Amino acid sequence: MPLSHARNAVCAVPAADSATAKAHFDRSFQFETDCADVSSALASDDPGFVLLDVRGPALFDAEHIDGAINLPHGKIIASKLLAYPPETLFVTYCAGPHCNGATRGASRLAGLGRPVKVMIGGLTGWLDEGFTLVSAEQ
Questions:
Q1: What b/e string do you get for 22-42 counting C-beta neighbours within 10 Å, with b at 16 or more?
Q2: Shortest CA distance to 65 belongs to which of 77, 52, 78?
Q3: pTM (2 d.p.)
Q4: Closest CA to 64 of 73, 52, 74, 50
Q5: CA–CA separation, 35 vs 105, rounded Å?
Q6: Is 67 left (phi over 0), alpha (psi -120 to 50) or beta?
Q7: Are 50 and 71 in contact (CB under 8 A)?
Q8: What is the pLDDT of residue 11?
Q9: Could you say which DSSP state residue 83 is in?
Q10: Which phi and psi angles does 64 have, rounded to 5°?
């Protein structure tokens, strides 16, 4: 039985051709990384990036990814980045996919001329992958 593509929103707009889709998905790696790749890199001697928790200090203190630095997205300004060479890659994260703080932080960093990626999934994704969090008091 043939399917009617007009029956739902998924099929109403045709998918891109394969070459266009591949280019799009390949480009996304310039902007995003995932929790497993961040965890693996953090376990090495030189992860190659600075992990920024862009939530507020109270949430950071309650729990965060070990090795992360707290810099709320609204406080990302040039003077806060002076300790890092201009080529330093930053990876931002927030609470999870329901939160756009990581994107806000990434936008601010990019606006300051800094290389940046977003860790998709945020803390929700981190926990879903089975990774642990620490509190600032630990």
A1: eeeeeeeeeebbbbeebbebb
A2: 52
A3: 0.90
A4: 52
A5: 17
A6: left
A7: no
A8: 87
A9: T
A10: -160, 175
| DSSP 8-state assignment for residue 134 | B
How confident is the model over 18-29, as pLDDT tens digits?
999 999 999 999
Six token digits for residue 29: 């790696």
What is the distance between the terminal CA atoms of the chain, rounded to a whole angstrom?
A: 60
**Spatial separation of the C-alpha atoms in residues 41 and 117, rounded to whole Å:** 14
Rounded to the nearest 10°, the torsion over CA 50, 36, 117, 69 is: -30
Query: In this structure, what token pair is assigned to residue 110?
Result: 């990019």
Residues of the chain with pLDDT under 70: 1-6, 136-138
Rounded CA-CA distance 47/89 in Å is: 10
Q: Within the chain, where are the H helices?
A: 9-12, 18-28, 35-42, 57-62, 101-111, 122-128
3-class DSSP assignment, residue 6: coil
Q: Which region holds residue 84: left if phi is over 0, alpha if psi is between -120 and 50, else beta?
A: beta
51-62: pLDDT as tens digits: 999 999 999 999
